[in-house]
From TrEMBL:
Coiled coil: none annotated. This is UDP-N-acetyl-D-mannosamine dehydrogenase. Belongs to the UDP-glucose/GDP-mannose dehydrogenase family. It holds the Pfam family UDPG_MGDP_dh_C. One of its GO terms (biological process) is polysaccharide biosynthetic process.
Length: 459
């Protein structure tokens, strides 16, 4: 085994596929990336990365300059010229929250037309358990070749976080499952060339498929616990962020931060793959379902916070202008996949509000397609109510003097509430109920040192 013996065709040049391709090229492998989007292909062949990710632009430029990295829309030709095919295409869910394997099936069909004896096919796309055995291999065998006899199959899930993708790909552990021992060994050799992390070989394909789903389901469930605790704390007048921080000093407790909902292609999608397969086996994945329901509810909870807050100052969502800070699902990225900002915007528009959005990374076209108006940050901060959704670094520098809105709702724990309340700003957040600074209130604002908040008397 040596780099010179391999030529790789990688299908799917998205947030994970392109960094993977660039890393293989960096480590001396000749790789051709395949994508159905001609603009992406043209951009890569010109030495430019179409994806905003720290360090990726240089890797792409270097790979193209050294003639180790190229891109094409012709998947059959790419498969014919290669002896390793890696499939990293999207696997979304449909309207029934079931896996949509259309892209995986299409890529496998393309590969089958160029498959040869001795080839290795690696699936990286997140898929439900038994997808490799029951879907991928039968399609590949339409080539007339026999899996395990004529060609190998391996599965290895990616583990990478946007805005830190290259570091995680080169340092995280890599889980690999193979159809047979030879398939697993070849895949382990290849990925061992691009990561310093541990290579973990599991028993078979389906175990590796399940590992990825377990990881993301764990995180989704943990976040749902934080979100449910946050909503309970809001009702009790408790600062959930402070309580969670204190609880996490327990050596066996690690509650994640609550927020406006879960976005991205992993946490908001992968648990449904387990639910889908469990139901086919006659098992109800109750905890996983409930976690998904809680996290899906959070954007609607934030919309209700907006409505209640406006009502408290004698306004209505109808005809109000609502500023939104950030529509990317994660800070410092342009990634809006499954972003909780979208259902929030939908709720606010359905209630008759005008929604004004600022996001330093997301294009105006994407914002307009969400039904909102792209604006400068000053305009978003000068609305009847402003809601911070995304924890972009820029928003960490907000000061009370910049907030011109009547109400500021901060759904991420990135700002100090007291700093804003001390300046008389109505500052609320997920898990952070509004308790005014009474030293700033005029005596006419309350009677007998009590004030009505959220429909209940608070001392």
């Amino acid at each position: 085994m040596a780099e010179k013996n391999y030529k790789i065709a990688l299908f799917g040049l998205g947030y994970i596929g392109l960094p993977t391709a660039a890393l293989f090229a960096k480590n001396g492998f000749k790789l051709i990336g395949v994508d159905i989007n001609q603009k992406i292909v043209d951009s890569i062949n010109s030495g430019c990365s179409p994806i905003l990710e720290p360090g990726l632009a240089k890797l792409v430029k270097d790979g193209v300059t050294k003639k180790l990295l190229s891109a094409s829309t012709d998947g059959i030709e790419a498969a014919e010229e290669s002896n390793v095919m890696i499939i990293v295409v999207p696997t979304p869910i449909d309207e029934n929250n079931c896996s949509d394997l259309t892209a995986v099936i299409s890529a496998c069909e393309t590969v089958s037309h160029g498959l040869k004896r001795g080839d290795l096919v690696i699936i990286e796309s997140t898929v439900p358990p038994y997808t490799c055995e029951r879907t991928v291999i039968p399609i590949l065998e339409q080539s007339g070749l026999k899996a395990s006899v004529d060609f190998g199959v391996a599965y290895t899930p990616e583990r990478a976080l946007p805005n830190n993708t290259l570091y995680e790909m080169t340092h995280n552990a890599r889980v690999i499952g193979g159809l047979n021992e030879e398939s697993a060994e070849k895949a382990a050799f290849l990925y061992g060339k691009i990561t310093q992390g541990k290579i973990i070989t599991v028993e078979n394909l389906v175990t590796a498929e399940m590992v990825k789903l377990m990881e993301n389901t764990y995180r989704d469930t943990n976040i749902s616990l934080a979100n449910e605790l946050a909503m309970v704390c809001e009702s009790l007048g408790i600062d959930a962020i402070e309580a969670i921080k204190a609880a996490n000093f327990h050596p066996r407790v690690n509650i994640l931060s609550p927020g406006p909902g879960v976005g991205g292609h992993c946490l908001s999608v992968d648990p449904y793959f387990i639910i889908e397969m469990a139901e086919k086996q006659g098992i109800e994945a109750r905890l996983i379902k409930t976690a998904r329901d809680i996290n899906n509810h959070m954007p609607h909870h934030v919309a209700q916070m907006v409505e209640n807050s406006l009502d408290e100052i004698g306004k209505s969502t109808l005809h109000s202008n609502i500023g939104i800070l950030g529509v990317a699902y994660k800070g410092n990225t342009a990634d809006t996949r499954e972003t909780p900002a979208k259902p929030l915007i939908n709720d606010l528009i359905s209630q008759g509000a005008e929604v004004l959005v600022h996001d330093p990374y997301v294009s105006p076209e994407v914002i307009i397609n969400m039904g909102a108006k792209p604006v400068k940050i000053e305009e978003a901060l000068n609305c009847d109510c402003t809601v911070l959704i995304t924890d972009h670094d820029q928003y960490c520098d907000l000061t009370p003097a910049m907030i011109k809105s009547h109400i500021f709702i901060c759904t991420r724990p990135i700002l100090d509430p007291e700093r804003f309340k001390n300046e008389g700003i109505i500052f609320k957040g997920v898990g952070r109920p509004y308790v005014p600074n009474y030293s700033l209130l005029d005596s006419n604002d309350f009677e007998d040192k009590r004030i009505i908040l959220d429909g209940a008397e608070k001392p």
